Amino acid sequence: xxxxxxxxxxxxxxxxxxxxxxxxxxxxxxxxxxxxxxxxxxxxxxxxxxxxxxxxxxxxxxxxxxxxxxxxxxxxxxxxxxxxxxxxxxxxxxxxxxxxxxxxxxxxxxxxxxxxxxxxxxxxxxxxxxxxxxxxxxxxxxxxxxxxxxxxxxxxxxxxxxxxxx
Length: 166
Known about the structure:
alpha+beta; five-stranded mixed β-barrel; disordered N terminus
């Protein structure tokens, strides 16, 4: 009896652990490679990437860049500079992506950390002052690095920290 109860509890724990992910991976996500090519830069923290045979919209995790294009609002301070930096750095280039707890956001974009030339681009974006660190729990795998990068960029007045009123 004790053995059956222990087995049942272990099975429940495994099922509960699998249910923690708020956006389950689809069958295409499970087979997608973790490498791709950036086709288009939407803005500093949103890109389109060819992953396998699909083009996916990717939202960089842990960062928030100034907005560029909204029909009813002008671009935010440093928005164009930030988007241009991402475009110069990533467009047409191969990247590696790393996932966190959630695979997709409410807009169906893939959530990812982007690596270019073995460097975490999300962190570079913040370190150069093109974006701010923004925590989006439960996706926190690289948040400490991003917080440190923001503190240094802010202290040294890099990018938006020197150009925009905060």
